[in-house]
Design a protein that fits this description.
mainly beta; 3 domains; 18-stranded antiparallel β-barrel; 19 strands; elongated
Length: 428
């Protein structure tokens, strides 16, 4: 009888000691006063059963159910999420045995303080891109950059240096303020833009052995006065100014007698074109011309071009009369822009805006992205469409990664829902 009484007293003594640390409002109290935790993760077996987690797996638990001061030494030295930081350091960075809420999540592989890495990260973690900067963790570790900081990677910055798209590199200098040409990924030059001592574009040189050419620009002070190709029959195009109008006249083919090749109306505040008239020689056994009137529509600040609409008419120079040309339709170009991303080449392209405006059919093909006057807009283009009776096209861009300064680092374009081009943007 005395032996049984001793067992009862011992049991009551044990039960009383455990209940000191397990009050009724403790979610891990199993009702008996005993804290039973089979896997050492600081969550009682009973609570794990209620939570639907594995009571025999130390990395299967709900963070909100954990009592950190009851975790085992083995659990503390583990790395549940494979990010190279021990569980203990993630929960208790101050090493005071208290979860003060100032740590990281030991079950989230991208929630970590990179300075607390003491273990070798898992292969799975190395393949992740924790900061969504389009650079995987492995590459950032190798480069010595922070895989948790979206603005810390090789090529990050505010000033565009290189755009890589398809088989081409588009190159910039002077802190991203000047476009200097393009080259093949192999390094072979494609186009070189040359500037004079006044930082004015005066020559575009093609290095294509099958079609070499040089496009020259001449100035009087700050104003462009002429441009032309040194090969072929392109001739020279003169440029004159009349108030808010810029007027050009080509030598080959010449404009109609007494008229012009192109006439642009320039908004005096923004310096952007708001209207255009143009005469293009029709040929094909006639002396007639196609006369185009074009309007340019912008957003409120005239920073981003929204629409180009062109209407054709026939023009007979012998009778100085205009007539309908039903076989040629209106042409409409529409542009939409990202609300978040900026055009990284905006400053560089803005300095050659007039060149692109006047040499509309050629200069745009040298720039990224080749999308008419939309390349001169401040925001990053994500959709453009062109419509005429003989041809329609749509180009869409998806911005895969963007820095906090709103400059993209990776983007993908799709032409007519089929051809896909990827682009990378490198800054300094």
């Amino acid at each position: 009888m005395k032996r049984w009484m001793s067992y009862i007293m011992i049991f009551l003594g044990i039960n009383g000691c455990s209940s000191d640390n397990n009050t009724d409002d403790n979610p891990n109290n199993n009702g008996s006063g005993l804290f039973i935790d089979s896997d050492g993760d600081g969550v009682s077996d009973e609570t794990e059963l209620n939570d639907g987690t594995n009571l025999n797996e130390a990395c299967s638990y709900l963070v909100t159910s954990q009592q950190f001061n009851k975790t085992s030494e083995g659990w503390r030295n583990q790395d549940c999420d494979g990010d190279g930081v021990t569980n203990a350091k993630e929960v208790d960075p101050d090493n005071n045995n208290i979860n003060e809420g100032n740590g990281t999540d030991p079950l989230d592989e991208c929630s970590l303080n990179i300075d607390h890495q003491t273990l070798i990260p898992s292969s799975t973690w190395l393949l992740l891109d924790c900061d969504a900067d389009c650079i995987d963790n492995q590459t950032e570790v190798n480069d010595g950059t922070d895989p948790t900081d979206p603005d810390d990677f090789l090529g990050a910055g505010n000033q565009i240096q290189t755009i890589i798209s398809g088989h081409l590199r588009f190159l910039f200098d002077q802190n991203g303020s000047r476009f200097i040409g393009s080259q093949e990924l192999s390094g072979d030059p494609v186009l070189t833009f040359h500037y004079n001592a006044n930082n004015q574009l005066f020559q575009i040189e093609s290095h294509n052995p099958d079609l070499p050419y040089i496009l020259l620009f001449e100035y009087a002070g700050d104003q462009l006065t002429s441009y032309g190709y040194t090969t072929g029959d392109g001739g020279i195009t003169s440029v004159t100014y009349d108030g808010n109008f810029i007027i050009t006249a080509a030598t080959s083919p010449p404009p109609p007698p007494g008229l012009f090749t192109q006439k642009f109306e320039i908004d005096p505040v923004s310096g952007k074109a708001i209207g255009r008239e143009a005469y293009y020689f029709r040929g094909a056994g006639t002396n007639d011309y196609i006369y185009w009137t074009t309007t340019y529509s912008y957003d409120t600040n005239k920073e981003n071009l929204l629409e180009i609409r062109s209407v054709p008419m026939g023009y007979d120079p012998d009778t100085a009369t205009y007539y309908e040309v039903p076989e040629i339709s209106d042409q409409i170009e529409l542009f939409e822009y990202s609300e978040e991303a900026l055009n990284p080449a905006y400053e560089a392209y803005r300095s050659i805006y007039i060149h692109g405006l006047l040499d509309n059919f050629n200069l745009h093909t040298y720039l990224y992205p080749d999308a008419s006057d939309a390349v001169f807009s401040k925001r990053f283009l994500y959709n453009s469409s062109y419509e005429a009776n003989y041809y329609t096209s749509t180009v869409s861009w998806v911005i895969d990664c963007i820095q906090s300064n709103n400059y993209p680092t990776e983007a993908t374009s799709t032409f007519n829902a089929s051809t896909v081009w990827a682009a990378s943007f490198i800054y300094e």
